[in-house]
Design brief:
Blueprint (H helix, E strand, L loop, with lengths): L4 E8 L6 H17 L4 E3 L27 H13 L2 E11 L2 E9 L5 E6 L5 E2 L2 E2 L14 E3 L2 E5 L8 H9 L4 E5 L3 E2 L5 H22 L3 E4 L2 E4 L9 E4 L3 E3 L5 E4 L6 E8 L2 H8 L21
Parallel strand pairs: 1-2, 2-3, 9-10, 10-12
Antiparallel strand pairs: 1-17, 3-4, 4-5, 6-7, 8-9, 11-14, 12-15, 13-14, 15-16
């Protein structure tokens, strides 16, 4: 079987409260990935700003913008300039009072290939996303690009095997997760280790269960809680790519910024699915209860 190798750049970046500086750094990191041969570049979740969902503040809705809008114009130009497929993550203002956490994908000619609105919205201490984001309504549809069909999901979606499965069933050739996840600095080392390992394990399991590579790009660095009620979030980095058997192909560090370049052979998915035919053996008639909240 011939190979179909894809060079992927993962931008693991630390942000500050200066949005213009963050975007300038993103532009430089995209250029660096492209110069090193990346054909696909993936950015983290809500990459223009600090992770603002640590607090509930109506003034922070001012960070949102329409799609298309200023950011889509900017990233379209970068994709075209560097001839890369670019996965971005934006705070979308759909209408007054309706906002989404939206991934937008640009093809290498700068055209908008498609978008995905985050479906699963958390509401945990320090991650008050239900205050800001309406759940997505575009479903689980891969985005067709010049490098393949991208199954783009966002952060909290990564804990749900149903989302990964539906993307794979719709033909996604790889799963991509822009992410913002980290520790409470007050947690002890053992708890931090458990959380990070769980995050990695669940995504590797999506690769195994669906026979596709997974790309996960996280933030890195400490971001303070504007309310001073907590010690903020220490984003744990560890951006990674794994293959269709869950094998690590590349992984970034826990604490430092890094542009990680990884080569993935997309044809391995078919090889793996031939020896592990999970899709063939699914007993689809026995899964009707999955549409229920819980079985009492």
């Amino acid at each position: 079987m011939t190979t179909n190798k894809l060079n992927i750049g993962l931008v693991q970046q630390r942000n500050t409260g200066n949005t213009d500086e963050n975007i300038s750094k993103l532009a430089a990191n995209i250029a660096d990935c492209a110069s090193r041969g990346a054909q696909l570049v993936v950015l983290k979740e809500l990459h223009n700003s600090l992770y603002f969902c640590q607090v509930e503040d109506v003034n922070l809705f001012d960070l949102a913008e329409p799609i298309p809008g200023p950011s889509t114009q900017r990233y379209s130009e970068l994709a075209r300039k560097h001839q890369v497929v670019l996965v971005t993550s934006l705070f979308e203002k759909r209408a007054a009072g309706i906002y989404h956490n939206t991934a937008v994908v640009f093809d290498k000619d700068g055209s908008m290939a498609g978008k995905y609105r985050k479906m699963h919205i958390p509401d945990d201490p320090g991650f008050y996303e239900k205050f800001y984001f309406t759940p997505g309504d575009l479903g689980y549809q891969p985005i067709e690009t010049s490098v393949g069909k991208l199954g783009v999901l966002v952060c909290w979606d990564q804990w749900y095997p149903e989302a990964a499965r539906l993307m794979a069933m719709a033909g996604a050739e790889l799963l991509i997760y822009p992410t913002a996840i980290g520790w409470d600095p007050r947690d002890d080392a053992e708890e931090k280790d458990r959380q990070c390992n769980a995050w990695i394990t669940i995504q590797r399991s999506h690769a195994v269960a669906n026979g596709v590579p997974v790309v996960s790009v996280n933030r890195v660095g400490h971001e303070a809680d504007p309310s001073s009620l907590s010690e903020g979030i220490q984003f744990w980095g560890n951006s990674f790519v794994c293959g269709p058997q869950g094998e690590f192909i590349g992984q970034a560090t826990t604490e430092t910024e890094q542009n990680l370049l990884v080569e993935v052979d997309l044809t391995r998915s078919e090889d793996v699915r031939r020896i592990w035919p999970f899709f063939r053996d699914r007993r689809i008639g026995s899964y009707t209860n999955l549409t229920k909240r819980f079985l009492d």
